[in-house]
Amino acid sequence: MMKKKNRLRTNNLRTIKNFFPRFLSLTIMSLLGVLVYVGLSSTSPDMIYTLDRYLDDYNTYDLKIVSSMGLDDNDINAIKNIENVTQVEGVHSKDVLIEKNDNEYVLSITSLPEKINTIELIEGRLPSESREIVVEKNLLDKVGYKIGDKIVVQDDSFISKEMEIVGVVRSSLYYSNTKVQQNRGTTTIGTGTINYYSYVLNSNFNQDYYMSIYLTINNAKEEVTSSKKYDELIDDVLNELDGIKDSQENIRYETLYNTAYKEIEDNENKLNSELDKAKKDLNDAKIKLTSAKNTLDNTKKDLDNAKKELDRAKKELDNGTVELENILKSNNISNISDAIISVNSSINELTKELNKMDKNSTSYIQVYNNLTSLKKKQAMLKQLSDSKNKLDNSRVVYNNGLVKYNEGYKKYQGGLKQYNNSLKKYEDGLGEYNSNKEKYGKEIEEAKEQVLSMEKPKWFIYNRYDDQTYSSYIDQTQSIKSLAGLFPLVFFAVAILVSLVSMNRMVEDDRIEIGTLKSLGFSNFDIQKKYLTFSFSATLLGSAIGCVIGLTFIPYLIFSIYKLLFDVPDFQFTFDIISICIGIITAVVCICGASTITAKKVLRYKPSELMRPKVPKAGKKIFLEKFKWMWHRINFSNKITIRNIFMYKKRVLITIIGICGCTALMLCGFGIKDSIIDITNMQYVTTFNYDATVYTNNLNEEDLSIISSNSQIIDYTLSQTITGTLNESNISVIVTDGNNIEKIINLVDEETNEKLELKGDDVIITDKIADIYKIKEGDSIKFLDSYKKEYTFKVTNIVKNYIGHYLYVSSSVFENNNFKYEPNVIYLNTKELSENEQDKLANELLDNDNFINIVNTRMLVNSVQDMLNSLNKVVIILVLLAAMLSFVVLYNLANINISERKREISTLKVLGFYDNEVDSYITKEMIISTIIGIFLGLVLGYFLTNAVISTVEMENARFIRHIKLNSYLYASGISILFTLIINFVTHFVLKKIDMIESLKSVE
Known about the structure:
By secondary structure, the protein is α+β, with helices and mostly antiparallel strands.
């Protein structure tokens, strides 16, 4: 008995060799099925694990806290006291503008991490001094910096403003890598986008507060970030943080309030002291001015009196001079001195003469009288001389007095000028004193009011999911995971059907052998083992190869595609045992199950029945023959083809189903591509009609005048955007004043496609979030803003949208919820601008402190399109695999068809049919089956595409359920092409059929 069984085993093994093409086809089908399932199922966990390991290797944060007014050591100490918080680290950071080659870039400078978010040194060394900096590699590659270059910043947040590049680093916080620009975050300077990142020592920061605090959680490293266990760990700490959040906000508020108020009081005291000193100086100056004024007045009075005396003296001099001149003139005296000399000489001569004369003589009397007359004249002249001398002396005194008067008057004028200058200086000082007293007093009061009206600081707590890059990465992996749900099902379904036909043909070919074995006493199970061994070997081999490729090549290939978006190094394989087991078991059950069913069906017969040739199917009329007017017009070859189709309905049906499934898979792949390729244009061109978004703070008329006066801006629209949640989904509420929303957003009804207007009481929600939460028109919804304030709205319309969730309401509706409408967003419509012109416009606008950030719509389009293109590449891989399956199915079915009908084909050859006629006998059925299969596959592909899109679609995106005509043509064309290739190969197989051997009696 053992020998019999050994021979049976040997025979079973020989079967693989004898039916190797069939064995190979089963192997390839199981390979493709397992490869698709295991590959797609493993890719998502592998990619998530790769990112998770990368983040954990550099101790990336689990939670991040940011405050509207900074954080301090008190906050760090409070966080450290929370249970399960293992590490806490505060971080300083500042965004600055740098220039290189006449271009301007925004550089984020962060304090070098010590424990959390550690960095990888790629080149050079880490900073050892405050004047040193390390940067990311892109800054060197794209901007042109090199190690040793200096980066100069103009910001008082840094002690050393000139920093030398000493190394190149990579940070696990920044792993976005798009064609547009690495996603480094937003900022309030430059173009509104951070271009590059860098690190310096803590000692170089001139900040007394932290910009953010990072923390890690106990046991979080041991869990994958997207796992439920990780979420539970995070939620526990989040609850604890929520518990201390209010108290820490209050403490920070009190600290800032007290510090600010003390600073104001110190400044007020300093100001009052300076004002008092200035007031005292002014009073002293006023006293001096008063004294100087009195002195000047007295001097002026003395000068006036002196002037009067001088005038009187001058008058007397003038009168005396005139009188003297008149006397001299009347006495004919021209010169008193000469006259005196002449008179004195005459007196002396007459005296001498008189002394010689007789006193009694007449001459004596005459001379004596003359002498007397001369003496009188002498006395008069002496008197005149004395008067003249007196006048001369008075004139000298007058002239001296006049000189002194002029000198005194000049000195008085100088003193008066100095007094007037001092008086003006005093009056200016008094005016400045009063002005400054009012100005600084007002500023102090305003500062006090600002401190009193200062809002309480708000904590914003973020986890890894809140990071845009991380959430985008996870969304992409979830899309791939969704593909693993439906695609492999179709692969396995096709494999089951084709395996069923293949094994059925194999069993039918072995009917006589099976009957012989049964007659020799072999059990049904022993006989069945041949087919189980055959199918199991093929399945196991294909599954093993499929697992290897699916676990390694497919995930790595898809990861390589996504590396264009995400700069995550060192791909990690997880070798998901569950996916492997499910894939192999499914393949084994499907294919081996098909062989078991087929074998059992034959083993029900008795050995005598099996050892006789199977009775051929009896020919019978088909329903087309009833239409004689049509049937007679069909030629003989086509009649045979039609009869064969109806005679071998099962095989034809399997062929149709196989081609249908493969065509549906290919169309589904192309359909997914069509559905996602245009959503960026539909969102940012058709739905949104603006070119840029300006986020503002404390918007005023001056800001609007800056916008309206810019020559690059055609038009602008104001709105208020509020972010929050609706149920579990993030949503943006866009509030507008009036009907201006139609200028920036096309509101199209999801059902009627009618264009809507936002009227006074309307509340319009986008369709995707409405579908998620089954929201209908007339339903009430509750919106929770970022400050946990709740608003209730009644939905009036649902509109189409493709990316994100939005709620559109008018300002009047929001004000009814006790909300003040304050525009914080400006939507811009600009001219056609180049990328450089867009950057220039952003730089110009961000020079205004009230403009916080600018987002260019074109940048959003490119960023989203990059992500969708990666998904497209994954879909192309699936299309290629579906095409391979289609080829294998067609080849397998063609071989089965030929092997099943060798006697018919040999008969045709014996009857003299040409090769092309023999080909036609077989290929016509294949072509007709292909055409029917393609048609049904296109129909099935349409529904399959919708089903796959429903699972692949991201939570915040709406794919366009649309398949382009080209996709139908591509899917059909590939199936037809493969059919033609198989028919071409079949031609040579048919030529090799040995007519004699095939027609030998089975007896």
